[in-house]
Amino acid sequence: MRKIILSVIGVLLIIFSFIGAQKLIASKNKPRPVKEKIIKTVFTDTVKNTTIKIVIPATGSLVAKRRVELYAEVQGVFKPSHKLFKPGQTYTKGQTLIHIDANEYYASVQAEKSNLYNSLSAIMPDLRLDFPEVYQKWQNYLNGYNINKSTPALPKMSSDKENYFITGRGIVSSYYKVKNLEQRLAKYRISAPFTGVLTQALVTQGSLVRSGQKLGEFIDPSVYEMEVALSENYASLLKVGEPVILNSLDDTETYKGLVSRVNGSIDATTQTITAYIDVENETLKEGMYLEAEINAKEEENAIEIDRNLLLENDQVFVVRDSILDTMPVKPVHFSETSVVLKNIPDGTVILEKNVPGAYAGMLVKPFKEVISKKDAK
């Protein structure tokens, strides 16, 4: 019995060994799987050279083109008027901004005018006797003299004798003294040089104003200008009268402006040149920040692409027979997001979007071909 069991076990071992050997032989003859080549799908664009307008972006704040800082040249009490001297108050041209009490000074002016009138009256008898030919001229001046009005200019001297006589009596010096006092009297009243609005008020009505004290600021809100600093590379491109598009920082409003002035010198520290842009709009306010788009020049036979697509050593990826390759290019202008390139022939297929890990010799498939195959199915 024992011999029978051992015989059966031996036969089974032989059978299993044979089956295992057959499986090993079969596994050696099985072909290895071939790895499929990975082909990336990319977005491409076909080059078509055109004329590209080079736009220089710049930001700056608005400042009133016509502005006046108000200073007192005389001393006195600020007299109340029918308009409050407060920021935001509007005035028309010639309207009184500030009126300083000048009663005391006015009395001294009138006294000098009276002295001049008395001096003229005193010489009239001598003029009648010694200079009868000019007497009527001076008599007419005296008749028209009014101390409550501005002193008129003295009659023109017709001879040296008349000049010596009038000057020797102190008439000329007295006249210029009166005119000097009248000029100073006019400084007690400050009028608006143009129609505008008060933006700063540093004194209140009834307060004492001292000579040399700043009183406020007055601007014309109809015209503003924006100062922008640009790279010295654009010095030869900026032209006076060039139209400029101005945008608010949130891109909700657009305004039209003109380059009014360009500084003739370059800042030695920053190597920038300053340009001034005029803009008119009722909605604008002083101090607003705007972004300017200045048309510098037009570059012919060029294209504009995303700045990230430009490789080191001034090269870009091109697609040739489903394989990526590089091509040297000539950058002519950089902006924050794009670059203007030249020396790319028309019809060249370039990448439209950046491909992570891209390299020369990489197999690619344009996205347009993938779509067309799906449509065909």
Question: What does the secondary structure layout of this molecule look like, with pairings?
Answer:
Blueprint: H1 2-29, E1 40-42, E2 44-46, E3 50-64, E4 67-71, E5 76-77, E6 90-91, E7 96-99, H2 103-130, H3 132-143, H4 160-168, H5 171-186, E8 189-191, E9 196-201, E10 208-209, E11 214-219, E12 224-231, E13 243-248, E14 254-266, E15 272-279, E16 289-306, E17 315-320, E18 323-328, E19 330-334, E20 338-342, E21 349-351, E22 364-366, H6 367-376
Parallel strand pairs: 1-22
Antiparallel strand pairs: 2-21, 3-12, 3-16, 4-11, 5-10, 6-9, 7-8, 9-11, 12-15, 13-14, 13-16, 14-15, 16-20, 17-18, 19-20
Helix pairs in contact: 2-3, 2-5
Short summary of the structure?
By secondary structure, the chain is of the alpha+beta class.
Report on this model:
- By secondary structure, the chain is of the alpha+beta class.
- Among the domains are: 88 residues, Beta Barrel (conserved putative lor/sdh protein from methanococcus maripaludis s2 fold), CATH 2.40.420; 67 residues, RNA polymerase II/Efflux pump adaptor protein, barrel-sandwich hybrid domain (OB fold (Dihydrolipoamide Acetyltransferase, E2P)); 84 residues, no CATH class.
- The protein is 27% helix and 35% strand.
- The protein has 6 helices and 22 strands.
- The strands form 7 sheets. A 6-stranded antiparallel barrel has the order 3-12-15-14-13-16.
- β14 and β15 form a beta hairpin.
- α2 runs antiparallel to α3 and α2 runs antiparallel to α5.
- The longest helix is centred in the first third of the chain and has 28 residues.
- The C terminus is likely disordered.
